[in-house]
Amino acid sequence: MQIIEDSLDQLLNQVAIRTNKVANRAEVEKAVDDIIANVIENGDQALKDYEKKFDGIDLKNLRVSQAEIDDAYAQTDQKVIDALELAKENITSFQKMEVEESFIDAKKKGVIRGEKIQPLAAVGLYVPGGTAAYPSSILMNVIPAKIAGVGRIVMVTPPQKDGLSKAVLAAAKIAGVDEIYTVGGAQAIASLAYGTETIPRVDKITGPGNVFVATAKKKVFGQVDIDMIAGPSEIGIIASSQSVPSQVAADLLSQAEHDKLARPMLITDDRELAEAVNKELDRQVALLPRRAIAQAAMDNEGFIAVVDDIDDAFTLMNAVAPEHLKVQLPDAIEYLNQIKNAGSVFLGFSASEPLGDYLAGPNHILPTGGTARFFSPLGVQDFVKRTQFVSYTKKALDKEKDAITTLARVEGLEAHARAIESRFDKE
């Protein structure tokens, strides 16, 4: 990867240019608009037509039968089942700590205020097909929704000529998915947002996908809620002279192998480490089955920045706001307060990023593209809605009516003021 070394201000400018690329998606948006309109008008038939056109599969039924799911589970290697069950246990124990409680405040005489936390009724999960079908992502999406109390969880995934992945179906069964449909792409997002004869609409859509899926999620937002507009995977590592080059390189490659547009980034205060990591990257990438993908990510999207000190490293990394942040430093937890913007943080030499991808418990559905400045990881909070309520006695309202009517009239809303005053009119 390219090594860049300059003043902090110059590095901040260079990193901003590298990480703020804007793709021209006019053609994609037009295609997605057409797909959504077709699904709204023609429902199931549009879905079947698109699957025949894009995947070459003539679907008779959209829904995957329970028998097919059970059979896939039975045929899945027991080691895979055990790993998925352990992951479920860890994810569940972590996500349960995110549960929010409703509250009631009645401290002021005659006044009751509160907030009621309620689960969403139905959630849709998009699961990519082919080599991007990750069973772990099913657990990460579904388990928080189940803990939140979502009543119906629907999974959509593109049909495969050789049948759906058995591990994917097993993960869906373990996680507790209620319905599975073989439909992919923008048309799947449209079906979840608007409903068809077979697929009832949902309230929220989560899960990763290609540019067409991401664009469709953006288009239907407002009709339904979405988790986020996810981009290619990212990893930022802060390391020093005490870091092990082979480990740093391995962590960078763990995300570079996802996608040619993935972004591996290293920031260090040690030039010798930067050069040693680069040599390790060249050695290790040659041994990877997905070396062409990882090499493209390193060449076109990745970088190694050399700064004056570790404080500057955190300043620069906070500007990047990476999806995954690996703090490869001694006593790493002492730096936690210096981290302002990151999706998920991995502290210390042993906490390699794949720990979070699969098993530790925190979610791996994370903000990308710098959106960790204002977005958070997917969690239980994303599958509930808050309803606020208030009750006043007439005596309590009398104490505050003048302030209410004053503010209403300042805003030019006379009917608001009169609605309050009507409670005190003489019959």
From TrEMBL:
Keyword Nucleus: no
Annotated residues for binding of NAD(+): Y126, Q187, N210
Binding of substrate, residues: S233, Q255, H258, H324, D357, E411, H416
Organism in which the protein naturally occurs: Lentilactobacillus kisonensis DSM 19906 = JCM 15041
Function: Catalyzes the sequential NAD-dependent oxidations of L-histidinol to L-histidinaldehyde and then to L-histidine.
Catalytic reaction(s) noted: L-histidinol + 2 NAD(+) + H2O = L-histidine + 2 NADH + 3 H(+)
A GO cellular component annotation in the UniProt record: cytosol
Keyword DNA-binding: no
GO molecular function terms listed in the Swiss-Prot or TrEMBL record: histidinol dehydrogenase activity; NAD binding; zinc ion binding
Keywords (A to Z) from UniProt: Amino-acid biosynthesis, Histidine biosynthesis, Metal-binding, NAD, Oxidoreductase, Zinc
Protein name, as recorded: Histidinol dehydrogenase
Classification lineage: Bacteria, Bacillati, Bacillota, Bacilli, Lactobacillales
